[in-house]
Design goal:
The complex is a heterodimer. Chain A is built from twelve helices and 17 strands. By secondary structure, chain A is an alpha/beta fold. Chain A has a domain of about 300 residues: FAD/NAD(P)-binding domain, CATH 3.50.50. In chain A, the strands form three sheets. In chain A, strands 1, 2, 6, 7, 8, 9 and 17 form a seven-stranded mixed β-sheet that branches. A six-stranded antiparallel β-sheet of chain A has the order 5-11-12-13-10-16, covered by helices on one side. In chain A, helix 1 runs parallel beside helix 6 and helix 4 packs across helix 12. By secondary structure, chain B is an all-alpha fold. Chain B is about 55% helix and about 0% strand. In chain B, helix 1 packs antiparallel against helix 2, helix 4 packs across helix 7 and helix 5 crosses helix 7. The chains are: A alpha/beta, B mainly alpha.
Chain lengths: ~550, ~220
């Protein structure tokens, strides 16, 4: 399915070098090449397409075919900066063309107005860098709409009374409801809550070159074999290639952004698949490597002129990491739900999007969804009640009975930005290329944990109202594994308290832009990808305007 | 190759604006056929073991058969789990070779210690076998939902437990779960595509608007 692309020489100074081909990088590649610029995208992972995707759990979970590999790219973790970090797998992200959007669940909520201005509304929170965004929901609304129509998002406008205003309905109806969704919807209504069809970046109707979802059931962590999941791979990357001006260069692991004597970025140095190094020259560099690898790359690019890392005069590169608060409850029902069929989520509630700190005693808010995201194998490892034997006759009987009768309620929520929560370079551990490994430092803000427990209690109420035969919740624990990688190069107007401005331009380097989860100022309520993609569309407009006015090159 | 080509041709046609119904109707057969051909090499039962000796294979199979026993339905033995594990130890689980190499003799020694006179695990009664396995089973607390299996430092029994489950429940196209017996047990249909209604609770769902109205009446 790969189409002919231009092949630029590394000595060719292209207009834009984009690092990373995921949710943000794919869209920037598409937009900038469509706007007439010559673009090279460097992606560290391989270029896989629909025919490479399988239902093989060994490839996915044991061999990390689509994701960062813990052997090649080991990590360390510690809770606080005074501890020495220990080696452990600390994060998972997509490592292939399309990035994490290839394997994600595809929950596609917009942020609400409050997410951009909450600091002003409720005031400062001690021990955090809680801040307003330099842009508002209304600045981003046209881009949310653009995302929905360009990549294909299924949903029902107006179904949630808590939805922010929108300029256009969804381009296609919601995906079919699952049994978990019906159970959830009925129970939520009984409790006076407002369930609505989940907005999902999965096609409910076919589009040119792509099939509607066929409900195969291997969705989260798997690549979509029919192009129904609206990943960057299935959407923006293909559109970028069709311009004839964009080269996607896979297996290209960038480890340094080079700057010249005047402090301008001149290109990026990367390893190819044979570990030869190259410098791709460019007039401007856009880093979309995700909220862990983007700050890592800036820190790896330290130089005499930028001793603390590139674009790090604020000292905030890698800091204020937010992972999103999360909790899960599980219910077992009398009759088969067969929830293994189809995508993960069909119903959501946003009744608790904005909790009143005065009433609940903590800051935060979130959403609950009805889901089943286990494969047969992962269900056997984690989907049975905690009191079930882990092997033998009773284990087998529980597997046999429960697999079709189980559903989960997943509680997504806010994380507060705490400065010490961060990605940084481990001082000792190296990756397979000899580069410093990513070190995760994270300790949830107490309010994030209170929120997770509070929402899990609502999930338990819901399972009771639904008449679950058995229910259990996973105790909320401090996180030490990162999936949502947010806030580590935050956006802001003040160069002392942020890394990029509202145009995604770094405060320190005029022709260096950052756009991905790292740009977020607040965490939203648990589903960041839609906002990352809206930001990418907006960033492309801003960057194009700057370039056309000659304000990048001079 | 023919299958691979037909699958590619199908996928590109599927995208050309064919109806969802057509896709749903035709996708599984084509996909299943193509996938089967692609993975035939991997899913065929190996003629001989790559890692285990025949004696070791007997012991491993005996342990796996206590993890997922055969009763009125097939268990690990019928699913050919031992072949999956053997293949795994030569491919995706090379790092577990040492665990198996050291773990199996240790388990046999424990068997002799607890039941003197029983020569090997496979010769013991199921009750004796379970008692020995319980002595190795260190329950780890799942404090938080783990949706990805977490590889890491593990003892022999835990490693074998995970490999047995994997070999029992993996998509049968990928070298385990022979004849789909694991999926049959849990009620997972083999099709590559499904149409709503999916289960008991959504089959009478009246649609979003109607459900809203019903709720308002109450």
């Amino acid at each position: 399915m790969m189409v002919d692309q231009p092949k630029y020489k590394t000595s060719d100074e292209v207009d834009f070098l984009i690092i990373g081909s995921g949710a943000a990088g794919g869209i920037l590649a598409k937009e900038l090449s469509t706007n007439g610029f010559r673009v090279v995208v460097l992606e560290q992972g391989p270029y896989l397409t629909e025919s490479d995707f399988t239902h093989n759990e060994v490839e996915i979970f044991a061999e990390d075919k689509l994701t960062n590999h813990p052997k090649l790219q080991p990590n360390t973790f510690r809770k606080t900066p005074d501890e020495k970090a220990k080696p452990q797998r600390a994060l998972v992200y997509g490592r292939c063309v399309g990035g994490t959007s290839v394997h994600f669940t595809a929950n596609f909520w917009r942020f609400h107005e409050i997410d951009f201005i909450e600091r002003s509304k409720i005031g400062p929170i001690a021990g955090t860098g809680f801040a307003d965004w330099p842009i508002t929901y209304s600045d981003l609304e046209p881009y949310y709409t653009k995302v929905e129509w360009e990549i294909g998002v299924s949903g029902l406008a107006g179904a949630s009374p808590f939805d922010p205003p929108r300029s256009k309905p969804y381009p296609m109806p919601p995906l079919p409801v699952k049994s978990s969704g019906v159970i959830f919807e009925r129970a939520a209504r009984k409790l006076g809550w407002h369930p609505f069809p989940a907005p999902m970046a999965i096609l409910s109707q076919p589009r040119p070159g792509r099939s509607a979802c066929v409900n195969c059931g291997f969705c989260l962590f798997f690549g979509c074999e029919v192009g129904a999941k609206s990943s960057s791979l299935a959407t923006a990357i293909r559109a970028a290639e069709r311009t004839g001006r964009c080269e996607i260069r896979p297996n290209s692991y960038v480890h340094r952004i080079e700057t010249d004597a005047t402090g301008r970025a001149v290109g990026a140095v990367y390893f190819d698949d044979k570990r030869n190094t190259h410098l791709q020259k460019a007039k401007a560099v856009v880093v979309c490597a995700n909220g862990a690898e983007t700050p890592r790359l800036l820190l790896l690019s330290a130089s005499k002129r930028f001793p603390d890392g590139l674009a790090n005069s604020s000292g905030l590169v890698g800091k204020y990491l937010m992972l999103n608060s999360a909790a899960t409850s599980v219910g077992l029902f009398e009759h088969p739900l067969n929830d293994y069929k189809g995508f993960a989520v069909s119903r959501v509630i946003h009744d608790f999007y904005e909790l009143d700190p005065q009433k609940v005693g903590f800051y935060g808010g979130g959403g609950l969804d009805a889901r089943f995201d286990y494969t047969p194998m992962t269900f056997a490892f984690g989907g049975l009640p905690p009191d079930t034997p882990r092997w033998g006759k009773d284990f087998k009987a529980a597997l046999s009975h429960n697999f079709t009768r189980t559903m989960e309620i997943f509680c997504h929520g806010t994380s507060l930005p705490v400065e010490t929560n961060s990605f940084s370079l481990d001082p000792e551990l190296k990756d397979a290329w000899g580069l410093p490994a990513l070190r995760l430092t994270y300790k949830d803000h107490p309010d994030d944990l209170k929120l997770a427990n509070w929402q899990n209690a609502r999930a338990q109420e819901l399972l009771d109202a639904a008449g679950a035969q058995k229910k259990w919740g996973f105790p909320v624990a401090e996180q030490q594994f990162a999936v949502h990688l947010l806030g580590t190069c935050r956006m802001g107007n003040d160069p002392k308290t942020s890394v990029i401005n509202a145009d995604h331009r770094t405060h320190d380097v005029k022709n260096l832009f950052l756009c991905d989860g790292s740009s977020l100022v607040t965490s939203g309520r648990g589903q960041p990808t839609m906002t990352i993609e809206a930001l990418a569309f907006r960033a492309a407009d801003r960057i194009t305007a700057l370039a056309k006015r000659g304000e990048i090159s001079s | 190759m023919t299958n691979e080509l037909s699958r590619r041709a199908f996928l590109s046609r599927a995208g050309a604006g064919l109806s969802a119904a057509w896709v749903s109707a035709n996708w599984p057969a084509l996909l299943a056929a193509a996938d089967h051909a692609r993975h035939a090499a991997r899913s065929a039962t190996p003629p001989k073991f790559e890692f285990f000796s025949p004696d070791q294979a007997v012991e491993i199979e005996a342990i796996a058969a206590r993890i997922i026993p055969t009763d009125d339905t097939p268990g690990a033995r019928e699913a050919g789990v031992v072949y999956f594990i053997d293949r795994g130890l030569a491919t995706f689980a090379v790092e577990s070779q040492k665990t198996y190499r050291e773990g199996l003799p240790e388990l046999q020694a424990r068997m002799n210690e607890m039941f003197p006179g029983v020569a090997k695990f496979s010769a013991a009664t199921p009750e004796q076998q379970d008692e020995v396995l319980h002595s190795f089973d260190e329950r780890t607390e799942t404090s938080r939902r783990a949706i990805r299996p977490r590889p890491g430092a593990q003892n022999f029994f835990e490693t074998l437990r995970q490999h047995t489950i994997a070999g029992f429940l993996i998509d049968p196209d990928y070298g385990g779960n022979r004849d789909g017996v694991g999926w049959k047990l849990i009620g997972r249909e083999r099709e590559h595509t499904f149409q709503p209604p999916f289960g008991y609770y959504d089959k009478d769902y009246p649609g979003w608007q109607a459900a809203m109205k019903e709720a308002e009446k109450k």
